[in-house]
Structures are given as C-alpha cells and as structure tokens.
Specification:
- With 179 residues, the chain is an alpha/beta fold.
- It has two domains: 48 residues, Translation initiation factor 3 (IF-3), N-terminal domain (Ubiquitin-like (UB roll)); 85 residues, Translation initiation factor 3 (IF-3), C-terminal domain (Translation Initiation Factor IF3, 2-Layer Sandwich).
- The chain has a four-stranded mixed beta sheet with strand order 2-1-4-3.
- The longest helix is centred in the first third of the chain and has 18 residues.
Length: 179
C-alpha cells in the first residue's frame, strides 16, 4: 500500500505490517484513505482528532446556514378590508425581513362553492406586495383552504426592478465621442 505520513509526506509503497509498525511507533492510527486506488492509499493520523475536527467543521457549517422562516397569514373570504390591510402590513414587514409568507384563505361551510372570491383576494394581496415579493407558489386549493406562497425579492432583484422603473438599463451606456 502507498503510505502517507501525518505531515502529508509520501513514504512510498510499504507492506501492511511495516505501515502498522510505523503508526504504532508514532502512537497514531493507520487509516485507509482511498481503498479503490492501485495500490490502496493509507495515512498515518490521529483518527479521534480527525473525527472531532470534522464534526466541528460540520457544526460551523450548520451554524452558518441561513434559516428561512415561513410566516403565515390566515384569512376568510368574508374578511373585512381593515382586517386584511393590517395582515398585509405584517406580511410586508416579514417579507422585508427576508421571510417567506404563506397566505391562506380558509373556507367554512358553503363558502367553498365560491373559490373565485378567494382567488381574487389572493391576487389583490399579491399585487399589493408585488414591490417586495414574488409569487413562489401560485394560489391552489388544498382541502378546504386556498394557499399561496410569497417569497421576498432579493436585494439584487430590487435593484434591477428599481433601475427598470427609472428607465435606466442595468449596464452603463457607452457613448461614442466623435472629435
């Protein structure tokens, strides 16, 4: 097998017994790194320390991940304009904070025979929040509820949208100067 020392130096091709002996002399472990290679590659290392450092890196990676929170506003087809407006204000704040928002319209009793009312309500909410969000999931029926998911527009997306509104292109214009 090909043997690599704890300092990543190639010690060449040695027999298994000799590799185990070298590892034992250094009070370290012999770990098979690449069993499919020809010849197999083994490394002398402290395996406990290796496992600890690997788990530490994984914990750091999990900590660094950004958790996207999903908030929900629940409405009914008969929800009043005032009630809807403060729910939309809350949704706007959440979207600006980078959270996703589920908008759920729940039907009770015979209200379910009028899904077009809920669809109109969801479209109005999406239109009101169009400056800070995009529709991630179109309105769809799930049992006795109609659900729509809104996702925040990224910072890059906001700049692009603002530059288009002001009539500017994303790339700077190059003007020819004839002299």
């Amino acid at each position: 097998m090909r043997l690599i020392s704890e300092n990543n130096e190639n010690l060449g091709i040695v027999l298994l017994d000799r590799a185990l002996e070298i590892a034992h002399e250094r009070n370290l472990d012999l770990v098979e790194v690449s069993p499919n290679a020809d010849p197999p590659v083994c490394k002398i290392m402290d395996f406990g320390k290796f496992l600890y450092e690997r788990s530490k890196r994984e914990r750091e990676a999990r900590r660094a991940q950004k958790q996207i929170e999903v908030k929900e506003i629940r409405l009914r087809p008969k929800t009043t304009e005032h009630h809807r407006s403060f729910k939309v204000r809350s949704a706007r704040k959440w979207l600006e904070d980078g959270m996703k928002v589920k908008v759920r319209v729940r039907f009770r009793g015979r209200e379910i025979t009028y899904p077009d009312i809920a669809l109109k309500l969801l479209k109005e909410i999406a239109e009101e929040l169009s400056d800070v969000s995009i529709i991630e999931q179109e309105p769809s029926m799930e049992g006795r509820t109609m659900l729509m998911v809104l996702a925040p527009i990224s910072q890059k997306g906001k700049q692009t949208k603002e530059s288009k509104k002001s009539g500017q292109s994303e790339e700077p214009e190059v003007q020819d100067q004839d002299s």
